[in-house]
């Protein structure tokens, strides 16, 4: 009965438009207080929320967000797209491939799907439209490529997943590299295929042949790219923990944008700081709310009951994973990755452990599902981000353009399901 009241309260609060973090917090507190009383419930839940937020690993989240914002406001996105364009300009659909490549690189800096789509989209879509690329292809390419932000390390989604499952952040970061590159490759292959099918030639008369495109790769581009080996190289060589690497990344981003590029004004610095504070507060509130809600479910023995129920179905690991994939594809229509991870993984964890499913592999599967959800209505955030930066586009334009790229994402997900080594080979080489 208490579980039913808790779930109904959560649903009602979300229907009335409360943020999911607040909805989780209130419904979790309600269930806890019904179970053990008001006074003891409040005391236990405040301690739970504090202890879960008082973590060295969690410090990495606001730092990675700040690093990404500094690079975003400092113009790193333009550098990365220009770099990618110089490499891919002679290929069919070169600009679309450049957008995918730039998104892949920027994802390794920002860790955010929406920031990646907004940054690379605002630069690449006008370029593609000017040169006659199909309207829907240009929008869909950027919307789906932007989702790589939650898979390519450093990924905030993987940090949250590690908190819930006690998996190694290093292992999860390593596990995201090959799948992320594979998906970028699949998106690029579709762009080549789609542009080869076109009957009308692309216009190469403007900036494609400009001195800017033909110019050599600049120092600013190299300096922006170096942030990735500085942060990830430090983690994988054991010089830094993921949290320490985030701090190093912030310092590098500040030095680069203030003293090397000289692109970060005081106004832009303030904007980057405030945006980071707002995003970090939102995620930390979500962690606190999910912690309280998850603690309530544990008190009510929900994860254990779910594990027993799944065990009674006598499902194989692969059958269970197929059902979970369907669940996450549906959840992705309504929840972002952070919320889905924090709410569902604690419930599923006993079943995953009972079926002896590799938690690092499952983390990659989960995140790819949520990537696809980021371009799935009604709450596909990347669809709305791309629509917002292209005033003459409709949601239908972006959605139709994103569909074939999302199918490439499903193909990649299927390959990782069939061949787990795509995700777990690199982590198997690491001792961390």
UniProtKB/TrEMBL annotation:
A Pfam family assignment: DctM
Membrane topology: Multi-pass membrane protein
Domain annotation TRAP C4-dicarboxylate transport system permease DctM subunit: ranges: 7-421
GO molecular function: transmembrane transporter activity
Compartments reported by the entry: Cell inner membrane
Keywords: Cell inner membrane, Cell membrane, Membrane, Transmembrane, Transmembrane helix, Transport
Keyword DNA-binding annotated: no
Ranges annotated as spanning the membrane: 7-33, 53-72, 137-160, 172-194, 215-236, 242-260, 281-300, 312-331, 338-355, 361-386, 398-426
GO cellular component, one term: plasma membrane
Principal cellular location given in the protein's record: membrane
Stored InterPro entries: DctM (IPR010656), TRAP_DctM (IPR004681)
Role of this protein: Part of the tripartite ATP-independent periplasmic (TRAP) transport system.
Entry's family note: Belongs to the TRAP transporter large permease family.
Subunit and interaction comment: The complex comprises the extracytoplasmic solute receptor protein and the two transmembrane proteins.
NCBIfam families reported for this sequence: dctM
Name assigned to this protein: TRAP transporter large permease protein
Organism of origin: Celerinatantimonas diazotrophica
């Amino acid at each position: 009965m208490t579980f039913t009241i808790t779930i109904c309260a959560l649903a009602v609060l979300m229907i009335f438009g409360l943020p999911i973090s607040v909805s989780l917090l209130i419904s979790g507190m309600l269930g806890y207080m019904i179970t053990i009383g008001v006074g003891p419930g409040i005391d236990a839940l405040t301690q739970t929320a504090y202890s879960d937020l008082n973590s060295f690993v969690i410090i990495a989240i606001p730092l990675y967000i700040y690093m990404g914002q500094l690079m975003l406001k400092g113009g790193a996105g333009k550098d990365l797209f220009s770099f990618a364009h110089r490499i891919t300009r002679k290929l069919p659909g070169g600009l679309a491939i450049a957008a995918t490549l730039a998104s892949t690189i920027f994802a390794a800096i920002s860790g955010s799907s929406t920031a990646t789509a907004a940054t690379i989209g605002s630069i690449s879509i006008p370029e593609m439209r000017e040169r006659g690329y199909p309207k829907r292809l240009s929008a869909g390419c950027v919307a789906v490529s932007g989702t790589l932000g939650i898979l390519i390390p450093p990924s905030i989604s993987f940090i949250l997943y590690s908190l819930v499952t006690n998996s190694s952040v290093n292992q999860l970061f390593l596990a995201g590299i090959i799948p992320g590159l594979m998906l970028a490759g699949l998106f690029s292959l579709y762009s080549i295929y789609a542009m080869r099918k076109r009957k009308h030639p692309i216009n190469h008369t403007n900036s494609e042949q400009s001195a800017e495109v033909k110019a050599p790769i600049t120092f600013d581009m190299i300096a922006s790219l170096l942030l990735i080996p500085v942060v990830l190289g430090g983690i994988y060589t054991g010089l830094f923990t993921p949290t320490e690497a985030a701090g190093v990344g912030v310092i590098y981003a500040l030095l680069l944008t203030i003293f090397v590029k000289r692109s970060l004004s005081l106004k832009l610095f303030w904007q980057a700081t405030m945006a980071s504070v707002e995003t970090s507060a939102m995620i930390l509130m979500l962690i606190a709310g999910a912690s309280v809600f998850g603690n309530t479910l544990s008190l009510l023995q929900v994860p254990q009951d779910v594990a027993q129920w799944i065990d009674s179905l006598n499902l194989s690991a692969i059958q269970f994973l197929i059902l979970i994939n369907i669940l996450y594809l549906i959840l992705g229509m309504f929840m972002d990755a952070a919320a889905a991870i924090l709410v569902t993984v604690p419930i599923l964890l006993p079943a995953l452990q009972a079926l002896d499913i590799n938690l690092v592999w499952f983390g990659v599967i989960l995140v790819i599902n949520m990537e696809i959800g980021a371009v799935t209505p009604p709450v596909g955030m990347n669809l709305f981000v791309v629509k917002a930066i292209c005033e003459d586009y409709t949601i239908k334009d972006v959605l139709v353009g994103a569909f074939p790229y999302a199918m490439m994402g499903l193909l990649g997900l299927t390959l990782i399901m069939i061949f787990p080594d795509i995700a777990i080979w690199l982590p198997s080489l690491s001792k961390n």
